[in-house]
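Fold this complex.
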Amino acid sequence: MTDLRQSAYRKRALLVLALLSLGALGFAQAAAAHEAPVGASPFRLPLVPAFAQCTAPNDTHMDPFGSGSCSPPTPLSAVAKWGPSSIGFVRYVVCPIGSSATFCTGPGSSMPLPDVRMTGNITDVECAAVGVGCPAVGGPYDPNPNPTQYPTSSGTGSTAPTPPCFLSGSPCVASQDMTVANPIRATDLNNSGPGGADGTSRDGLFGIGIPVDCQSPNPAKSYGGADCGFNTSANALAPGSILSGKSQVWEIKQVFIRDAGPDGMTGTGDDTEFARTGFFNP
Amino acid sequence: MTATAQIADSAPGSSVRITDNHNTPSPDATVVDFPFRVPVDCTPAPPAGSSCGFNTSVNALQPGLFVVTGTSQILELGEVQFMDAGTDGTAGTGDDTLFAVQGIFAP
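Structure:
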């Protein structure tokens, strides 16, 4: 009798083990369904002014190009311009569950994990023309009159404004003056289907883009322009966009910062590119 | 492989848009977008796969591109991409395809 019970127990144990193995295999297959790196973070790029493409050259660049060029250069933005003390960056950091990185869990951070923290800043942004929120050329560019959402600091060009905005919904757009537009192609295990099917989304902007707030430098600095920046997260802007166990690959196309256009309101169709990723060689 | 970049609003293969004051007869100008390619070397990395990379400089690849100082060069760089060598195994022969692009990964 004892032998029979032991035999039945062994069979059940083997069955459970086999089912667990199959389950683990299934999970492994799902997790490895699309190619993915071991890790890809942080994503940090410097920003430079965005100029119009040269399509009808009237000038020639010195060697080694010897190629056509367009003079004078035409900034794409007609409402905002880079001041003499401008410097800028964008930085995205993946913060998985269990992350111990200070940037993900530091003091003052109430960002639930997992998430992707998104920060950026451009200093000394000036008005390029008189218009909405710009009474004088060279003054601080801040077309949205609402109080800043980053009252502690306006950022430094290498650090983001503070405090961070991790609340879902409207707070992060309350004083939006510019927009980060970086088309994303997402491949993950979070598509329709049992257990989350493997798929690639259509290319698109991340939600409505990342809202950028411009304000007079805080603390006060020596230049006359505004500091424009953001300090938020993917899940604050698009709740549920970052999940665990979904093997999320985000191809990030060229990053643009768009101004608010002549009407001073972002997203109304007249916004133009103010900054792009690149380098500066003085 | 080849490392390159693609400017979003430019012709395929356009990697870089340079604006500086090193033109003639008018010094300050934006150059016609042009390609910039960095050769990438892959070496087998046992027990599996290869390790692909590069370690060079702009002026090593295109002498003079960044030699001149004081020209206030603004270099707008498109989406960074790695192209494979295509089916013929030779980089730059027209059959290369996109292998990797800039981005992030959330496990």
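Chain A is about 15% helix and 30% strand.
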